[in-house]
Design brief:
Layout: E1 11-14, H1 22-27, E2 32-36, H2 41-44, H3 47-57, E3 61-65, H4 74-87, E4 91-96, H5 98-113, H6 117-121, E5 133-137, E6 149-154, E7 159-164, E8 172-175, H7 185-203, H8 210-232, H9 237-250, H10 265-277, H11 281-296, H12 301-312, H13 317-330, H14 344-356, H15 368-377
Parallel strand pairs: 1-8, 2-3, 2-4, 4-5, 5-8
Antiparallel strand pairs: 6-7
Helix pairs in contact: 4-5, 7-8, 7-9, 7-11, 8-9, 8-12, 10-11, 11-13, 11-15, 12-13, 14-15
The structure holds 5,6-dihydroxy-NADP and zinc ion (ZN).
Length: 379
């Protein structure tokens, strides 16, 4: 067991109609609000109206920044922070999935300090304060609602980076599974892949506390149990609730107790694919995880077999890898580059991108030779 510090200050409001408490919660932090959201789904499905009704009823003055894209870009962060500073905003309300919430974490830091968002993301400056952030999650996947990470990309520097900082913790997270009922089948599947990938990144980190391994398997098994039912019944409240809780638990710190780190090698591979082809985050992971497991199956055979026994009741590393790939396929997530329209002609640029950004894991290092093999294994 490795030494560890457990800390998570986020108030999690989970369940049907929890957003009814939004107005009074936001009011504790100020009256001038910046509402951030994406490219239209929240208006189309009525979540924007519900949130606005709450904010207005609490007498709050609301400014808006809309249009944050999936795989969010630093330009939006800079523009939203400038708007917030100009209006004297005191609190940010992020309504959306991971892209909106991640962007809002950096918007808050940049707004509070005047620092450049990319200098924050690259640890060139060290912000000492932020603006309170409250989120209303509309897509179960990333765990950002209850963690201290933010992922943003910058096409000028060719990097998609994760930035982890204690000031990134939101104050409150509102998770009403009803808000996720309209997530389309593809992003529902990608969200399930993402949460499983988070559990796996933790599992393959350094330190193997047995109880945490079992908790991690329980999260993965729960997602695998409900996923096929949910894919057939996308508006089912209980199924959405189960997956939403799985996603939060998979990356809110719980699976890291007794561990020194997670691995995150597969996520860094996935981020490079998103940068190059704007592939949805979860889709990059269903492609990259089977490849990474195949690459590592001799080195860490026992660890993979323990995973296979714990999750699928199978005995070998090969069966474990096949079971994950089959599961991803069964919910409609791609498991090869071919399935997202890439072929031989793309291989070299992916390898070069992996080399350029030195793709690796925190626990299991990846060499340049590994990069070549991984791209081959991604088919
Ligand atoms: O833009 P809109 O119109 O809102 O549509 C979004 C978007 O097209 C749509 N959507 C969201 N909620 C919906 C909905 N459509 C219908 N009904 C709803 N209720 O879904 C699309 C994807 O949204 P996005 O926010 O990009 O998805 P996700 O939550 O998967 O976030 C992905 C981002 O999070 C980062 C990823 O790298 C990626 O940039 N991650 C953040 C992490 C963290 N902070 O801890 C960890 C993760 O590993 C991940 O890296
Ligand atoms: Zn992820």
């Amino acid at each position: 067991m490795e030494n560890f510090i457990a800390y998570n200050p986020v108030h999690l409001h989970f369940g049907k109609d929890v957003v009814n408490d939004l107005g009074q919660t936001v009011r504790q932090y100020g009256t001038k609000v910046l509402l951030t959201y994406g490219r239209g789904s929240v208006k189309k499905y009525g979540y924007y109206d519900q949130v606005m009704t709450q904010l207005k009823a609490a007498g709050l003055e609301v400014f808006e920044y809309a249009g944050i894209k999936p795989n969010p870009v630093v330009e939006d962060v800079g523009k939203a922070a400038a708007l917030g500073r100009e209006k004297g905003v005191e609190v940010i309300v992020a309504l959306g999935g991971g892209s909106v919430i991640d962007s809002s974490k950096i918007i808050a830091l940049s707004m509070a300090t005047g620092m450049d968002p990319w200098e924050i993301m690259t640890y060139k400056v060290n912000p000492q304060k932020t603006i309170p952030l409250i989120n209303i999650l509309t897509l179960a996947a990333t765990g950002t609602e209850m963690n201290a990470a933010a992922v943003v990309q910058n096409h000028k520097t060719g990097k998609k980076l994760g930035f982890v900082h204690p000031l990134n913790y939101p104050k409150d997270a509102f998770l009403d599974p009803q808000y996720t009922a309209t997530v389309p089948a593809d992003y529902t599947a990608y969200g399930i892949v993402d949460l499983i990938a988070h559990a796996l990144e933790a599992y393959f980190g350094e330190g193997e506390p047995p109880v945490i391994d079992r908790i991690t398997f329980a999260i993965i098994k729960d997602a695998i149990r409900w996923a096929p039912l949910l894919m057939q019944d996308l508006a089912n409240y209980e199924l959405r609730a189960n997956i939403m809780l799985d996603a939060t638990l998979a990356l809110n710190g719980l699976t890291m107790y007794g561990k020194k780190n997670g691995d995150w090698g597969v996520h860094t591979m996935g981020h490079e694919l998103s940068l190059l082809y704007d592939t949805a985050h979860g889709a990059t992971l269903s492609i990259a995880y089977p490849a990474w497991l195949k690459l590592k199956k001799e080195d860490i055979s026992a660890r993979i077999r323990t995973l296979g026994r714990g999750v699928f009741g199978v005995n070998t590393a090969d069966e474990t890898i096949q079971a994950f790939a089959d599961f991803f396929t069964s919910i409609g997530a791609p498991v090869s580059l071919k399935e997202i329209g890439l072929d031989e002609s793309n291989r070299q640029e992916i390898i070069e991108q992996f080399h350029k950004n030195e793709v690796s894991g925190m626990h299991h290092r990846l060499s340049r030779q590994d990069h070549v093999k991984l791209v081959e294994l991604m088919g």
